[in-house]
Amino acid sequence: MSYQYQDGAAGVLPAAAEPDIYRKVTWRLIPFFCACYLAAYLDRINVGLAKLQMLDDLHFSETIYGLGAGLFFVGYILFEVPSNLVLQKVGARLWIARIMVTWGLLSGATMFVNTPTQFYVLRFSTCCASCWARPRPASCPACCCT
Questions:
Q1: Which pairs count as long-range contacts for 89-98, CB under 8 Å and 24+ apart, including other chains?
Q2: Which of 35, 55, 58, 128 has the least CB density, counted as fewest CB within 10 Å?
């Protein structure tokens, strides 16, 4: 494993240091990714729990709810590969931060839904903002994490 020193010199990292690096990276990244996946899970089950209220309070039919829930996955089909390409271009730190902020704002905007059209647009937009959350390297072999 090669290493770039702060003064610009390249060197080889001692084999004894590798476990420490992996441990440090694991403890920094795994909690963050777990929080992201928890947010994705809550977003997906939230609309299922809200269905009961939507049917009664907003007078949505099962068809309206089903179409809105289905539109969520149309965005995955359309925007997952382009999202991975942008991720590769701009970097993970900036792209994941943008996605989480946009996703949070759109998920919070769900409380303002009054019509089926608003529900459809919001669910589709939420999906487009969060399509990174379930990366599937098989869907884009040329651009997956290398």
A1: 95/132, 96/36, 96/132
A2: 35
* 145 falls within a domain: no
- Report how far residue 33's alpha carbon sits from residue 43's, in angstroms, rounded to the nearest whole number: 15
Tokens 């928890």 correspond to what residue? 38
- Give a yes or no: residue 146 inside a domain: no
What digits encode the pLDDT tens for the residues 39-74? 778 777 777 777 877 888 888 888 998 898 888 788
More confident call, 22 vs 12: 22
Which residues constitute the domain of residue 69? 2-139
Percent of the chain with pLDDT over 70: 79
Supply angle C-alpha 95, 90, 99, rounded to 5: 10
Per the domain annotation, does 26 fall within a domain?
A: yes
What is the pTM (predicted TM-score) of this model?
0.66
In a domain, 144, yes or no: no
The answer to whether 72 and 124 have CB atoms below 8 angstroms apart is yes
User: What single DSSP character describes residue 60?
Assistant: -
